[in-house]
Amino acid sequence: AEGDETAKAGSLTDVNEIMADALPDPAPPAPTDPRLPLDARQVFKLKKSWKGIKRCMADTGVEMFIRMFRANEDIRTMFVRFRHLKTEDEIRVSELVEKHAISVMGTLDELISNIDNVDYVFDVLKATGQSHMKFPGFRTELIWDMEKPFLEAVKITLGDRYSDNMDTIYRITIKFILDSVIKSSTAPTNNSVS
Known about the structure:
Blueprint: H1 2-22, H2 40-54, H3 57-71, H4 73-78, H5 88-93, H6 95-113, H7 118-132, H8 147-158, H9 164-185
Helix pairs in contact: 2-6, 3-6, 3-8, 6-7, 7-9, 8-9
């Protein structure tokens, strides 16, 4: 009886292989917009990975802000509502920081979830960049201070799922986002970023 089951299993495998060979190869993914520095496979992996961040947006965002404030104290003092928070523990439990972190992560979620719709992404980035210009003391180069804290926070949240390949994809993505925010924050209000 054991031999019969092995023969059946072997023949099913053979049939599956024959059927798979008869199917045409799937079409390659459509090319991405040339303004986007990610290929179709990277976009797919980014969106899939981002789901892990989406489930922990508040914690990831707060961690990003803690790391950003640790790296540049001047940034924390630019936030009028956060100036009084002196320790990382105060920052970590602050509802104000959490609310702002959720807002920033919500924008990042909107961008990453729609990353293959480059025109829409540029519209969101333009609005984001120009809204930051109204803050006293804001300088566009401060935007870059978010890069490393973002990557570190994402790495902490994803843990083992943050592979070398995902590191590369997230680095490309955040550079694209931050560079576009900087370009759009200084662009005339009636032109698109590209």
